[in-house]
Amino acid sequence: MKKKVFGAIAAIVMISHFSSAYALTMINEKIKEEQITSGVVLKNYDRFTEKGWLNINVLEVDLNDDNTEVGLLNSENGLNTFQTVYQMASKDNIVAAVNGDFFNGTSANGNTVGLSIADGELLTTTYFENELKDTFASFILNEDNEAWVDYFTHKITLRNKKNKKELLIGEYNKVSTNYEYPVIYTSEWGKYSYGSKLSLTEMLVKDGKVKEIRENGEPFEIPDDGFVVAAYGEAAKNMIENFKKNNKVEVDIEMDLDIDEIKMAVSGGAVLVKDGEIPKTFSSNISGSNPRTAIGVSEDGNTLYLITVDGRQASSIGMTQIELAEFLKEKGVYNAINLDGGGSTTMVARKLGEAAVKTINSPSGGVLRMVTNAIGIYNNKKTGSLSNLVLRVPEENVFVNSKMQIEVLGYDKYYNPVDVDIDDVDFTVDGVLATVEDGMIVAGSDAGTAKITAKKGRATATISVDVLSAPNEIEISPKKEAINLGESVEYTITAKNKNGYYATLLGDDLTYKVISGDGEFAGNKFVPNKEGDHVIEVSVGDTKSYALVTVGESNKNVIDSFENQSFKFVSYPVAVTGEASVTSSESAHLKKSAKLEYDFTKTDATRAAYLRFESPIEVSEDATEISFKVYSEEDIDDYIKLKFVDAKGNTELVMACKGVTGGEWNELTYDLNSISLPATLTDVYVAQDKAEVKNVGTIYFDELAILTDKNDSVSEVRLPQDIKGVSSLEETTELTSGESLKIIVFDEIRETEILLDSLVKNRVEQKMNNTAEVVVFTSQENEDLISNVGAEKIIPNGYSKQTIDGSLFINLDVSSGGVRISDYNQWLNLKNDVTISSEKNIFIVMNGSLNDFTDKKEKKLFIDTLCDLKRKTSKNILVIQDGESTEISMERGVKYISVNNCFIDNKDPLDVVRNTKYIEITVSEKGEVYCSIKDAI
C-alpha cells in the first residue's frame, strides 16, 4: 500500500483541464522597476482587470552575475520547525526571498511535502504520489546555474554491509502517517528523534555503524555524522532482526538526479509552463482566485524568476492557477512550477541602500505565515566603500514655505548598503529656491521645480521635487465618525493648491479647533471629554475643513484592575516555578497591578506560567474584544496567551502577542470573533515552546477590560461647508459675445408639495429655458417633472456619448459602486473615446459621484486616468457628478462639478432662497470653459 498525503495537501491534488483563453482583460497597469542588488531587478505590476485588482511582484535574477547566488533557506531550528520568510532571510548577505514548498503540520512543527536539496545534500524527499503519477514538481538549479523543472521519484535503501540485508526507506526527514515505511532523520531535521513520543522503534547510526536500537524508548540525539532510522510494525521487526550493534551500514539513494551537483532543489505543485507552453492538464490544482507563488526560468536559462501574486483582498484578488500560468508565459518564463500559495505567499527584499530586508507583498492573512522553506538570493561581495547615493522623499510635491523630509542612503559598487551620515552630505539646489536643513527640504515662496543634488566624495544622487503654490483647499478625514467615550479619532489631512495638485502639510502648518463640543487634541488625534456631538475644524490660513464626531457611552468595561488578589499561580509542567501576586511597584491604571514571576530554565518541554482567576471571568455574547495592559522591565520573547472556555464547553488557547517590549506599558487587544460566546476567561498566561529559549521573567498585568459593540450611530448634525482659499475656479460666465455653448448643472426638480416648491420649480425652469442650450440633471429620477425644460437634457443612465456644439458629453454608469463593477467595458470605452475625440471639451456625466466608489483604489485610478488623459490630449476635461454639496473643485487640471440642494429645509423660505444653487458653465467660441456657482432664486 502506498502512502497517501494527508490533510489539506491531499485536497489540492486534482486534475484540471482548460483551454488557453484565460488571459484577463487589462483595464490599466502600472509597472515599477528597481535594481535591488547586482544582477537582481524587482518589478511590481499593479494591474486592474475586469475581475479586479492584481498586485504582482517579480524578482528577475541574472544567473550569470558573479556577485549573486540563489539557494534554499530553512528554519535555523531544524527542518521540523517553521519560520517566516522574513526570519529565514534576515541574514547579512541575503537580499531577497520568497516562500517555497507546501507543507504538512502546524505553525510550530511539520515538514515539506516535496523534495529539497541544498548544496549537494539531500534534505527531504518527495511523497509517494510521484510514483503513482506526476503530482509534485520540483525546480532544480545545479552548480553551473543550469535550471529545469521535472517530477522526481526516489528509492532509498539502507544496506547492512555484513549480511547484505536491506531495509527500504520510505522517506527522508518527514513526519510519516505510516512508519511501516521507515523514515531516516538527519541532524538537519532537529536535535532529537521521536522515539516513544510516536511509539517508534529507532536505530541510531553514527560514523557508518549501528550504535543502538531502542523499542519505544527515549528519543535519540541525532548526530551530525549519522542519522536515526524510525519504524514500526513489520519494518521495525525487520530492522531488529537484520541490523545489530556495530554493523556497518550504507545508504543508497536512487534518483534521476546527481544530488552532489545540485545547488538547490525545491518542490511545489504542478508544472505551470513547460518549454514555453502551458500543459494541457495540471498535475495538481488549487482552484479559485488565490494568492500565488511561483518559480521559473527563461528560455536561454539566464534569468531566474521568483513571482508572488497577492490575493483575498480588495487591492489584489489573486489568480487562478491557469491565470498565473498565462502571466508567466506572457513575461517570457519558459519553465516554471507552482509553489505554496494562499497565506504562505511572501516576498521579502532589501531595497537599494537599506540594511535589512522588508516584506514587499501584502500577505493575505495580514501577518507573515510560518513556512517550511524559502528560496533566497544572496549578494556575496561587499567593499564597504561608498560608490553611490540614493535620495528618497515621501512624495513628489511640497507646498511653498513648507517642509518635507529627505533621506540619504548609500551603497557600494556591488549594491550593498553603506552607512551615510546626512550631516556629511553636501546639497545643491537648481530651479526654484529651496534648502536642505536637518534632513528636511525647506521650500521657498516660489512655485516651480527644485532639482536637489546630494554629494559625498564621488558619490552623487539627484531628485526633483515640485514646489506647489499655497494650499487652496484642505479636507479632513474621516469626515464623520461615531465612537465611544474613552476612544479617540486620528485625522488625516489632504491639501491641494488651486490647480488640484496635492502635497502633505506637516502638523506645524495646521491649526485644530473644537468649535462645538468638548475635547482635546494631541497632534492630529481628537480625544473627546464627554458624550454627544463634536464639530472639529482644521485650518491653514483662511482655508478650513470640518468634521463631526458623535460620542456615545463608553463600550469599555474594566473588569479587573488587580487592586486585590483574585488569582493564583499555576504552572506547566511542574518543573516551571514562579509566583503570582498583587504589587504596588508598577501600575497602569490605579495603584496596583498583577505580578507574574516565572522560571522557564529547568526543562526543554513546552512551558507555561498561569495567572489563573479564582472565579472565571464572564465574557458576554455582545463582547467584541478583550484588552489588558502588560509591562516588563526588559524585552521578553515569551508568548502572552489567554485561555477561554467557549459556549460549547471547548477550551480555546489564543495568542495575544509573541513577546513584550520592555520599559513601557503595552496595551494588548484580542478580537473575540473566533470565540463562541458567551464564554469564560480562566487564565492569562506566559508560554514558551522553543527548547532553546529559557527565560526567567517578570511580567505585570493591569486594566483587564471587555469591549462591546462600538457606537455606529452618526448624528445628522449639519457640518459647515468647507472653506476654500482664493481660487481660479470661481470664474465669470457672463459672456455677452463669442459664446458657443451655455450649460446649466442642477441636481433635480422635485414634486411640488407646497407653494414654495412651485416657486423654486418655476424659477429654476425659467433660468434653464432663458439661459441654457444644455441642462445636466445629476440625480433626476422623475423625468415627467422636467418636461417644461426646453433645452437639451442630459440625465446619466448607462454608458453613452453625444456631441453638442463642439463638446463631447459622455454618460458614465457608476450606480453599482464604481465604473468596473457597473460595466468594465466602460473603462476601455472612456479612454478610447476621450483619446480619439476631435472635440476640445469633454464632459463626463456620472449617475453618482466619486464618493460612491466602493473601491477606493479604483477611485484614485479614475482621477489619475483623467489627469493623464488631459495631459496627453491637452483637452479640457470636466466631471459632472451628484455630490454631497454644490461645489467646483480641481484635481490636477481636471474640474469636478457637483450640485446638491437636498440639505435645504424646504419649509424655510429664507433657507431656500439663500441656498438653492446651480452651476453655470460657459464654453466660449475659442473653446475655453468657465464655471460659476449661481443662485437659483
Summed up:
With 937 residues, this protein is mainly beta. It has 10 helices and 71 strands.
List the helices and strands and how they pair.
Layout lengths: L7 H4 L4 E2 L8 E12 L2 E10 L2 E11 L5 E7 L10 H5 L4 E6 L3 E3 L4 E3 L3 E3 L2 E4 L4 H4 L4 E6 L4 E5 L3 E6 L5 E4 L1 E2 L10 E3 L15 E6 L2 E7 L10 E6 L1 H10 L6 E6 L7 E6 L3 E3 L7 E2 L9 E7 L4 E7 L11 H10 L2 E7 L7 E3 L8 E2 L13 E7 L8 E5 L4 E3 L3 E3 L1 E5 L5 E2 L7 E6 L2 E4 L2 E4 L4 E9 L2 E10 L4 E5 L2 E5 L4 E2 L1 E5 L5 E2 L7 E6 L2 E4 L2 E4 L3 E9 L2 E10 L3 E5 L6 E6 L4 E7 L9 E7 L7 E13 L3 E9 L7 E7 L5 E7 L8 E6 L7 E10 L7 E13 L30 E8 L8 H17 L2 E4 L14 E3 L5 E5 L2 E6 L6 H5 L1 H12 L4 E6 L9 H18 L2 E6 L5 E5 L2 E5 L10 H7 L1 E8 ...
Parallel strand pairs: 15-16, 31-39, 41-49, 61-62, 62-63, 65-66, 66-67, 67-69
Antiparallel strand pairs: 1-23, 2-3, 3-4, 4-25, 5-29, 6-27, 6-29, 7-8, 9-10, 9-21, 11-12, 11-21, 13-14, 13-20, 16-19, 17-18, 17-19, 22-26, 24-25, 24-26, 27-28, 30-33, 32-37, 33-34, 35-38, 36-37, 38-39, 40-43, 42-47, 43-44, 45-48, 46-47, 48-49, 50-60, 51-54, 52-53, 53-60, 54-59, 55-58, 55-60, ...
